[in-house]
């Protein structure tokens, strides 16, 4: 049997993840620690020997309220070489065993496996053969936009659409200034984030939830807040996460005032410059349409990100393993219907 070893040290865990080319920040120790505030408990383990690990798995488990069951999730993982059949089989087997031990109804994974990779079909066959099925619920964005940061700044600007380069310079000419933010700016950023949520129609959590994440990542040097101001007032901002060679545009916010000043274009450019300065080689713009169609709700987001030279990247998406089929069916089919009925009645 393949060796499986629990990892209880943050530095050891993060060093293990970085043995692979592009580990995801949602598999990092800090992300798992932050998720404890909403009832998730993180377990982390290495698959294979210490000198030649096959995979690293960070699994979050949450007990269902007043029920003797749990749900489990391996966000953007497990971390491994998905072209290695032995590593794939070993990692999946360890996740399945762990889910059973935790009394989970099911476990979900959504690794960054490119849908067009030569080995993608083999991965899907292995998943299906082991009882995994494509999930109807995508916790994270199924697809994203990536920007390679290896080239010099002039080359990065050259890959942008002309209008985007113009808007970056226009923002500067119109007096927009971008600065790094700190913990004292988080309430201001959240107020803009709430305004963005109301305007664009997406749900957000309470300030305390984001405060825990933002402060933790800022303190660890794995997060960065950028704020755009005009005439002394903050009008937009972005919060970036960083792990290994990748920086992610995780949170963006802007107010109604000053949108014509193009602060978001300048913010994205400064985010790319910061990521390069940290040694990152990839900037993940975090989110793209499920289908490249103007009817997709994220088409406008795609258009904005593409203008910066973003490369559309499709992943395999989320897959679920039902530990108990009846429980999985109740949780994913019956409970949503009951909750919808209760909401309608109320």
Key descriptive features of the protein:
alpha+beta; 8-stranded mixed β-sheet; 346 residues; 25% strand; 7-stranded mixed β-sheet; globular; single chain
Any overview of this molecule?
This protein is of the alpha+beta class and 346 residues long. The protein is 38% helix and 25% strand. The protein contains 11 helices and 15 strands. It has helices spanning 10-17, 29-34, 85-101, 120-129, 153-158, 162-173, 186-200, 207-220, 263-277, 299-306, 325-345; strands at 4-6, 41-47, 55-63, 70-74, 79-80, 104-109, 132-134, 143-148, 177-181, 223-230, 233-243, 246-254, 282-284, 311-314, 319-322. Strand 10 (223-230) and strand 11 (233-243) form a beta hairpin. The longest helix is centred in the C-terminal third of the chain and has 21 residues, at 325-345.
**Low-confidence residue ranges:** none
Number of strands: 15
Structural class: alpha+beta
Gyration radius from CA atoms, angstroms: 21 Å
**Main sheet, how many strands, which sense, barrel?**
8 strands, mixed
> Total helix count?
11
Q: What's the overall geometry?
A: globular
The fraction of residues assigned to DSSP E strands is 15-25%
Q: What level of helicity do the residues show? A: 25-40%
Task: Give the structure's gist in a few sentences.
By secondary structure, this protein is an alpha+beta fold.
Describe how the helices and strands are arranged.
Layout lengths: L3 E3 L3 H8 L11 H6 L6 E7 L7 E9 L6 E5 L4 E2 L4 H17 L2 E6 L10 H10 L2 E3 L8 E6 L4 H6 L3 H12 L3 E5 L4 H15 L6 H14 L2 E8 L2 E11 L2 E9 L8 H15 L4 E3 L14 H8 L4 E4 L4 E4 L2 H21 L1
Parallel strand pairs: 4-6, 12-13
Antiparallel strand pairs: 1-2, 2-3, 3-4, 3-5, 6-15, 7-15, 8-13, 8-14, 9-10, 10-11, 11-12
